[in-house]
């Protein structure tokens, strides 16, 4: 409760500062609407079917991207972490691909995939792969050799050790990687919607709001909703980690 209270005080202080800046003559009102205006617009947008469809499109594409990233990264991490020869053979390629920002691949993705949801899902998967992959690999580096030896004494083969010993031991690391990957994928998802001319999504809503005369209150509404989705994802996955792997 003490941490929760401090969090509320921090949010309240931030909102008060924002309100003062928004109503200050030093900053134009159209450039930084105060939170009282943004909250009113947020309530209006939450009753709008069009805005809800943008939010649902982003969240649905994000969940698809996370699931695909997990399906690819966890088995790949188990293989790379348990077979040193494969890990060393692929290290140069992985280290080359990992630093490339997903947004830098937008032109290539548009040429190959077009302007549909496949583009933002693919780039979000690319961004989400790395935290999950490397957390899985590092988890196997921390695997207790005594557990592996005990399983082998009882006749467990390599595949059995991988799925019965290594994967349960790596689960806390994997869940942490998924939590990091989810927020990263959300940033990439909204960025691609904003920059790649998507036809639906929170990023598209923000792009439309800033075009023409510009509605900064709607831009901030989209930003606030994207941030709220990120907070809910992070807290939800943290609760899952604490419940499933409390040990």
From TrEMBL:
**Membrane topology annotation:** Multi-pass membrane protein
What main location does UniProt list? membrane
Output the Pfam families linked to this UniProt entry. Answer: BPD_transp_1
Specify the superkingdom.
Bacteria
UniProt keywords, alphabetically: Cell membrane, Membrane, Transmembrane, Transmembrane helix, Transport
Task: Give its localization.
Answer: Cell membrane
Q: Which family does it belong to?
A: Belongs to the binding-protein-dependent transport system permease family.
Name-wise, this protein is ABC transporter permease
To which species is this protein native? Lentzea roselyniae
């Amino acid at each position: 409760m003490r941490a929760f209270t401090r969090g509320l005080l921090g949010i309240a202080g931030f909102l008060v500062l924002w309100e003062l800046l928004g109503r200050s003559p030093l900053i134009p009102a159209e450039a930084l609407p105060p939170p009282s205006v943004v909250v009113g617009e947020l309530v209006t947008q939450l009753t709008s079917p069009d805005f809800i469809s943008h939010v649902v499109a982003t969240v649905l594409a994000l969940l698809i991207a996370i699931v695909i990233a997990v399906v690819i990264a966890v088995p790949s991490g188990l293989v790379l972490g348990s077979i040193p020869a494969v890990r060393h053979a692929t290290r140069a390629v992985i280290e080359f691909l990992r630093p490339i920002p997903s947004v830098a691949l937008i032109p290539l993705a548009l040429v190959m995939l077009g302007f549909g949801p496949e583009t933002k899902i693919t780039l979000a998967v690319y961004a989400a792969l790395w935290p999950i992959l490397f957390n899985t690999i590092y988890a196997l580096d921390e695997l207790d050799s005594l557990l592996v030896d005990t399983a082998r004494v009882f006749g467990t083969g390599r595949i059995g050790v991988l799925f019965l010993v290594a994967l349960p031991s790596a689960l806390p690391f994997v869940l942490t990687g998924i939590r990091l990957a989810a927020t990263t994928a959300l940033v990439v998802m909204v960025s691609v919607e904003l920059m790649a001319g998507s036809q639906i999504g929170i990023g598209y809503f923000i792009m439309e709001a800033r075009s023409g005369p510009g509605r900064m209150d709607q831009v901030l509404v989209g930003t606030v909703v994207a941030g709220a989705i990120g907070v809910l994802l992070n807290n939800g996955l943290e609760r899952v980690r604490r419940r499933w792997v409390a040990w």
